[in-house]
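DM from R.C. (forwarded with permission)

"hey, sorry to bug you on a friday — could you get me a structure for this? deadline for the figure draft is monday and I only need the backbone to look sensible"
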Amino acid sequence: MNRLKILIGTEKGKYILACLVSTLFTCISVLLRASIEECIRAFLLTFLLSLSSFCDISSRTVDNIYPCSVFFLSFAFLRTIQLPNLLIGAAFGLCITLIPALIMKSGMVGGADIKMCTALGAFMGPFPFSMALIFSMPFAIIYGIKNKDKSIPLIPFLSIGALISLTIQRIIL
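My reply, with the result:
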């Protein structure tokens, strides 16, 4: 575990691990008979989520480039019929994190968490993003109870939940 923390702490290590995780998830997408565009989106999303997760774990800060890239990735291969779903998902992701951030003490929900939830809501749509939250929150709660931290790096758990949700969605549809 210490070697993994050291590897994540280096810039080169973050990119290597992100590429490995992205490649693994893309292989799963191929096995699920996804189209080329779905595999490209899966690789890019997983790469961006991995990098932002590593940043959130190691320094509790996430550069704006990661949530912005996920948001703009939502528009890649977009069909006009999907635009309302994208906008509703973004609004849902924003509201689901902004409301607790305004109600709770400062530092409980970070700005990067709000931005990433908005971006993932846009990428996935409201229903799959709801599933991602349902899958990710138990892991986050267990982590918070185990480590007794006041702030939890939420993006790694959101990433896990999003990938589980997208995989299940691909299997069902």
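R.C.: lifesaver. The chain is about 80% helix and 0% strand.
me: no worries. The mean pLDDT is 81.
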